[in-house]
C-alpha cells in the first residue's frame, strides 16, 4: 500500500502570492475552454452509457415506419407520396424530443455530487450548461440522419438531392440546439428529472401535433390552421421540406433561424440566472 | 497589518424556511492552522462551510476569505479554496484520471499541465493502480482520497473538508489524518467539520463547537476536554454489592461524586487521570465491594455537549446511526477505534 502522506513540497504554499494571482471574473477564452471541457465530459458519458441513445435512435425508425404505413394511405393516397410530407415532420419531432432529453439529463446531472464541485470551482457559470449542449449536437445529428436513412429505405427520394438533405439536416441540428436552451431552463428550475420530463411533454406534444408536421395544414379547421401557421415547429418543418424536397432556401429558413435566435436570447440568460440561484 | 486571517466570519445566518440553520456564527481561522468545527448532525456545520465556500448564499452577516468578501467576490474566493464535500463530489462515470484531468482543465491548466498534475496527484494519493477505473467501482476510502486530490489541483491555500472521515474504516481514517497533516505542512490552512471529538483532538489546533446553529464553545481540544474531565470510570457492581460503600470509596480516592444507578448497579465517576482507576479498584477491593466489570471511557462528543449546553445531543440528530449518549465515538458498524479503553 503506497503512502498517502504528501511528500515535502518543493515550495511551501504562499497565500499572499495566490491572493495576488486571483482575478475578478472568467474571461471569454476561459469560458470557451471550460465549455469544451464540459462537452468532452458529456461525450465521454454518452459513450459509456449508450442506452441513452435508444430514444434518439429508435424514435425515428419506429415513428417513420408507423406513420408512413398508418397515415400514408389516408392522407396522401399512398405511402410513397406521403413520405416527402412526413419525413421532415418526423425530423422536427425527433429533434424536439431530443431537446427534452437535454433538459432531463441536465437535471439528473445537477443533482449529483460532482456539480457541487463545479459550483465551487472558479469557472464560468455558462460552461456547465453549454458544455452538454455542445455534446448534444451529436445527438441531433444522429436523430436527423437516421430519420432520412429510414425514409430512403421506405422509398423516399428527396428532390433536393444530397445538398438539399444536408442543408435540411444542418438546419434541424441548429434549431434543435437553439430550442434546447428552453428545456435547459426548465431543467435548472424543476425539482426532479421526472418533472422536467412531464413539463416538457406538455409543451412538446401540442407543439409538434398542432403543426403541419404530419398533415397538410389546409385540412384543419380555420382557427387551428391559424395556430399552425405561427407555430415555430411549422416553420422548421416547412423549411426542411423546401430544402430536402426542392433544394430551395425559402423565407421559412429565415423564420426558423429567427425563432432559434429568439429562444437563445430569452432562455440562455434565464438558464444561467436560474443555475446561479440553485447554488 | 499582518497576513489576513484565512477565514473571518461575523454573524453568519442561514435560514431555511422558518428555521435558522446557522444563527449568527463568528469564526476566525488563522493562516496555517487546522480549525475544527465540531457538532452533531444537523447542528449547522455543513451549512456554515457551504456559505464560506460560496456554495450557499449568506442570508445575513459577513464572511471574508484571506480578506476577500465572499458575497461580493465569489469568483475570486473560489480561486483560493478547495472544497471536499461530505459526499464525494467527483464524476461517477469517469475514471480517476479523467476526473482529475477535467477539473484541471476547468481551472485553466493547459492539457499537458493537467496531465502532469493528474499523474502527480494519483501517485501522492496512492491511486495509480486505480487510475483507469471508473469512480463507481471505487471504495469509500478511495473516493475520499480522489475527492481530496481533486481539491488540491491548483494548490489552493485554504481547504474545506466536510466530515472527511465519516464512514471510513480505522486504517483509512488514519491515512486521511496523515494526509490532512501533510497539507498543513505544505502551507495550507484547513477548516474541517467533524462529529468526532476524537478527530478534532487528533487534528485540530483549535475547535469550535456548534449546536442548533449557534457556537457554544471555542478553544483548543484540551480546553474542551478539560470542561468534562479527562475520562470516565464505569464500574458494574456485582449484584448485592454495597453501593453506598462503593460510592464512599470513590469520594475518598477521587474526591468526586460518582453517578450511581441503583437498579442496574452501575457507577460512573469522572477521572481526572486514567491512572487513578487502579487506585479506585484497589480501594473497592479493600472495602470488600465486588465488581462485575470495569472500563475507562474517554469523553465523547455527547459528554462535551452535555457539559457545554446542558442538554444531550438531540435524539433526532442520531436517527441515522450516530453515536448515542455515553456511547462510542464512532458507530461500531463503521469500524470503530476501540472507544472504551480498559484501565491502562
UniProtKB/TrEMBL annotation, chain A:
Q: Pfam families per the record? A: ABC2_membrane
Residues spanning the membrane: 53-76, 82-106, 126-153, 165-186, 198-215, 253-275
Q: Where in the cell is it found?
A: Cell membrane; Membrane
Identify the InterPro entries for this entry.
Answer: ABC2_TM, ABC2_TM_bact-type, ABC_2_transport, Nod_factor_ABC_transporter
Keyword flag ATP-binding: no
Which GO BP terms apply? response to antibiotic
Q: Name one GO cellular component term.
A: ATP-binding cassette (ABC) transporter complex
Which domain of life, per UniProt?
Bacteria
Q: Which GO molecular function terms does the record list?
A: ABC-type transporter activity
Q: Which residues form the ABC transmembrane type-2 domain?
A: 51-278
The family line of this record is: Belongs to the ABC-2 integral membrane protein family.
Please name the PANTHER family in this protein's record. Answer: NODULATION PROTEIN J
Q: What is this protein called?
A: Transport permease protein
Recorded source organism is Parafrankia colletiae
Q: Cite the source lineage.
A: Bacteria, Bacillati, Actinomycetota, Actinomycetes, Frankiales
TrEMBL record, chain B:
Query: In the record, which residues are listed under signal peptide?
Result: none
Work out whether the entry's keyword set contains Ion transport.
no
Q: Give positions of region: Disordered.
A: 312-344
PROSITE patterns for the chain: ABC_TRANSPORTER_1, ABC_TRANSPORTER_2
Database matches in InterPro entries = AAA+_ATPase, ABC_transporter-like_ATP-bd, ABC_transporter-like_CS, ABC_transporter_ATP-binding, DrrA, DrrA1/2-like_C, P-loop_NTPase
Grouped into one coarse class, the protein's main location is membrane
Q: Which residues form the ABC transporter domain?
A: 7-237
Read off the SUPFAM superfamilies from this record: P-loop containing nucleoside triphosphate hydrolases
Give an example GO biological process.
daunorubicin transport
Q: Which GO terms describe its molecular function?
A: ATP binding; ATP hydrolysis activity
Gene Ontology cellular component annotations, sorted alphabetically: plasma membrane
- Protein name in UniProt: ABC transporter
UniProt source species: Parafrankia colletiae
